[in-house]
Design goal:
This protein has 159 residues and is an alpha+beta fold. The chain has one domain. The protein contains three helices and five strands. The protein has a five-stranded antiparallel β-sheet. Strand 1 and strand 2 form a beta hairpin. Helix 2 packs antiparallel against helix 3. The protein is elongated, with a radius of gyration of 24 Å. Keywords: Membrane, Transmembrane, Transmembrane helix. This is Sigma factor RpoE regulatory protein. Pfam families: RseC_MucC.
Length: 159
């Protein structure tokens, strides 16, 4: 089980809207200059993701929850997203190269196969996202933000 903490945005009728912060690991390793993740993180301005998770326990906005997702579903979705365009690219490129015997045809086949593989992955992802074992679940719930209050006293307040 892969775990991550999220913040509750809202809770209505058994459905929690959660916000997960995107973590960039760029500050924690020494190879900052040649890191591909650092470059990709700079491209997208999105710093958080919002998702909806079923939850029977009433939650308060600002409350922290621990989410979990099965490793199998994460690996399966990564394989679907990365491998289907790649396989489509190679197969259609080889097919066009064999049929038309030109490099231009192979390039066009590669483009068509990559886009086709992406569309296939997109169609399958909609079907797979409906599976219950592919959904994130709430593993634990932290205290609401207003449940704990700490008062400090200065030495001048003791008199």
């Amino acid at each position: 089980m892969i775990k991550e903490w999220a913040t509750v945005v809202s809770w209505k009728q058994g459905e929690a809207l959660l916000s997960c912060d995107v973590k960039a690991s760029c500050s924690s390793c020494a190879s900052r200059a040649g890191c591909g993740s650092r470059i990709l993180n700079k491209l997208g301005p999105q710093t958080s993701h919002t998702l909806s998770v079923a939850c029977d326990t009433p939650l308060v906005a600002g409350q922290k929850v621990e989410l979990g997702i099965a490793e199998g579903s994460l690996i399966g979705s990564a394989l679907l997203v990365y491998m289907s365009p790649l396989v489509g690219l190679f197969i259609v490129s080889a097919l066009f190269q064999a049929m038309f015997d030109t490099n231009l045809a192979a390039i066009c086949g590669a483009l068509l196969g990559g886009v086709g593989g992406f569309l296939i992955a997109r169609g399958f992802s909609v079907k797979l996202s409906r599976r219950e074992n592919w959904q994130p679940v709430i593993l634990s719930v932290a205290l609401p933000p207003d449940a704990l209050r700490v008062e400090t006293m200065t030495p001048a307040d003791n008199s």
